[in-house]
Every structure is written in structure tokens, then in C-alpha cells.
Request: fold
Amino acid sequence: MTIRFKGQVHEIVEFLHVKPGKGHAFVRSKLKNLETGKIYENTFRGGEKVEQVILETKSMQYLYREKETLVFMDLETFEQEHIPLELLEGKDKFLKDGLEIIVVIAEGKMLAVQVPHTVELEVTEASPGVAGNTVQGGTKQVTLETGAVIQVPLFIEKGERVKVDTRKGEYLERVK
Reply:
């Protein structure tokens, strides 16, 4: 649920309704400010009113990077939108041409960009994997088609496709 709190849009991350033996009930909550990304705790008294904010989502397709913004195309109207890099929170290194994302909008303002949790990318640079003094499977750095650098197992070679977790920036598996 999203609410307006202290003049800004917040998402309720966690909440706990507490009804003590004496006194009035209250709700202890953890709120995330969708405009700044900051998370903090707040306690609401029983019966306190808050305004609910309705979020809209829009599917968009990644086109290209332009300085400090990324250009996306609205899949319904085919209009191009410029989205600041900070809305992607570092996930821009996993975007390739044509990838679909979801933009979260509240009251006409873009608040967040949701990138798919996994993407399949081609390895463009990989040093040869040399098994050495490793007890378990070792790793090496590779560069992906988007320019991102990640750690992968030693058996991954240039030209192979890998599945990457965009939330953690980690290798998941090799794609056939």
C-alpha cells in the first residue's frame, strides 16, 4: 500500500498492529519514501487518518543511453521518455536494446523503474579459465554485451550466454 505522509509518497514495507493491555492500540510501521528511497520507522495512533496514493504502472522498452538519462519508448503511445539514471539504482548496466521494463508513476511523476529480475546476456570478453589452487570451483571476471563486469565460473567462455540476477548483479547459470 502507498500513502501520502509528510507531503511525500511512501510505501508501507512492514507494519505491526499492537494492542497493549492498557492504553490505545497503535500501528508500528516501516515506510519507504518512494521519491528518495530512504526507509524509516513511524508509529501511527489508532484512528489516525492517512491519504492513500494510487500508483500507475507503464510498460516501456529500452532504446539507448543519452548522457545521464536513458531513453525508453512507451509501448502504448510509442512516445519517447527520458528517465534519469538514478531511478534505475545501478541496474542500468544490465539493460540491452529492446528490454522491457515497468515504470511506477504517482500523480504524473516517475518514482521507480522495475527491471526484470533476470536477464540473458552474451559474454564479450573472458580470460581463459585456469584451474589452480582452488578447493571448490573458482571464478573469473567477464565482460557482458552491455559492458557490465561480473564474476562467473571458470568454464564460461567468450560468446556464451549467461543468465544474470539484476538485483544482486550475480551470475545464475549458463544459457544454451
Remarks:
- The longest strand covers residues 8-18.
- The radius of gyration is 22 Å.
- The chain has a mean pLDDT of 88.
- Residues 60 and 83 are 11 Å apart (CA to CA).
